[in-house]
Amino acid sequence: MTTLKKIAAVSANDNLIILCSRKTNFQALGLNLTEANFVKSELEQDKKQVVLNQFRRFIFVQLIPEKKSGAQTLEAMRRAGDGIAKVCNEFKLKTVSIADTENKPALALALAEGMALGNYQFIKYKSDRRTELHSLNMICINSKNLKEVELSNLSICVEATLIARSLVNEPVNHLNAVKLAKEFERLGKEAGFQVEVLSEAKIQSLKMGGLLAVNQGSIDPPTFTVMEYKPRGAKNKRPFVLIGKGVTYDTGGLSLKPTANSMDLMKCDMAGGAAVGALMYAVAKAKLKVHVIALVPATDNRPGENAFAPGDIITMMSGQTVEMLNSDAEGRMILADALHYAKRYEPELVCEFSTLTGAAAAAIGGGGIVVMGNANESYKNKLKKSGEEVYERLAEFPFWEEYDEMLKSEIADMKNIGGPAAGAITAGRFLLKYTNYPYMHFDIAGPAFISGKDGYRPKGATGVGVRLMFNFFKNL
């Protein structure tokens, strides 16, 4: 974890990032006349970043970009920060200081955020990891109007995002459903929120038929984790409920995934669960005045043991029956029980995160999150605003009731798949049947786990959803 720190002044010996405009007086910041003229010449040629090696230190001159929107400018700064972090590690720099010459603390924070997120590594299983470990461990910020609470919140949110990434990157032989629940317990103790893990016996007594059916193919028991943070003076009278899919590994079950290499990445199928657990850590550690509950049903999905089979009729916790026609549509089965369980809280809003459908990923790729639901426009707009601010943008799909026709079964209350078209939407409509409250479904199948580095988002787990919802709660 990279430490973020506010400083009153920049030392002449600090590795330095100058956050500047074209009018900045570079000589006043420690550059000699030759260096200052060189930087100005580079900026005139439309360079956005100039690197100077003064031998005793590095100086990065970062021009504030001119973008169409404030959100795009913030994202450009994060990506610039990732590039600077890469150079710092190449030259084994341990600390670097940001000098905000334009007095724009939001941009300085975005630059630091991109550096800290881009500096992430998951190398715990490498025997030579000490030689590969990034050198950069501290980012200092000198910005006149920067508030300590803003820096603290950013540091906490970055830490939580990295926690989510590491949980998702863990292979199933090191992180099954039981171990995932223990990780949530550890996070609760560290940050100060309540955690209750329901045992298999309790899950059976609650008749969570969807979770139990998916778990039939596994030798490991399922878990259902309930997390709660309820501070004094919470702004909301009714809780916000977060639900995350916790399929620790997905083979597709008896409907075995047919595509070559399609199972290689399936340790990521608990990215929704990781996101809401890490978000609880962030909300509690930042002491945000919001009452939040998180639910994570967890199991792996395998074709062994007494695995549920296409054609099986499953009775869910709600009492509704489902004709299970594809065991690779397992996420909605375990989430349905969690959504029904959430009714007991009479929630203000439920936000559910899941790597649910390939259809969502195919529709918009990894550039955003597919979202749909029946929450009021005020909450939808606030969520979209947060998505823009952190650049985890939301693409809202239609949620028309006509799609329910595709889920009708001749022998049960519904099927667990809709058909070849509108797969992301029918999955959302399936889940809606288990709610009686304002509900938003976030399908993160596209951005949760990526095949190549994308700026400050590394190859592998991205931790998507944490920054989005932390921003949402913080803005409340």
Provide a concise account of the structure shown.
With about 475 residues, the chain is of the alpha/beta class. Helix content is about 35%, strand content about 20%. The protein is built from 14 helices and 20 strands.
Count of discrete alpha- or pi-helical segments spanning 4 or more residues: 14
Low-confidence stretches: none
Kindly estimate the percentage of residues that lie in beta strands according to DSSP.
15-25%
Report the count of strand segments: 20
- CATH-wise, what's the superfamily of the largest domain? Zn peptidases
- Helix share, percent: 25-40%
Largest sheet: 9 strands, mixed
Mean pLDDT across all amino acids = 97
What's the gyration radius in Å?
Answer: 24 Å
User: What structural class results from the helix and strand content?
Assistant: alpha/beta
Shape: elongated
Might you state the CATH topology name of the largest domain? Aminopeptidase
End-to-end Cα distance, whole Å, is: 27 Å
When the domains are counted, the total is: 2
List the helices and strands and how they pair.
Blueprint: E1 3-6, E2 16-20, H1 33-44, E3 49-53, E4 58-63, H2 70-90, E5 95-100, H3 105-118, H4 129-132, E6 138-142, H5 148-169, H6 177-191, E7 194-198, H7 200-205, H8 209-215, E8 223-229, E9 240-244, E10 246-250, H9 271-285, E11 292-301, E12 312-315, E13 321-324, H10 331-341, E14 349-354, H11 358-364, E15 369-373, H12 377-390, E16 394-396, E17 414-415, H13 423-432, E18 439-443, E19 449-450, E20 460-461, H14 466-475
Helix pairs in contact: 2-3, 3-5, 5-9, 6-9, 8-10, 9-14, 10-13, 12-14
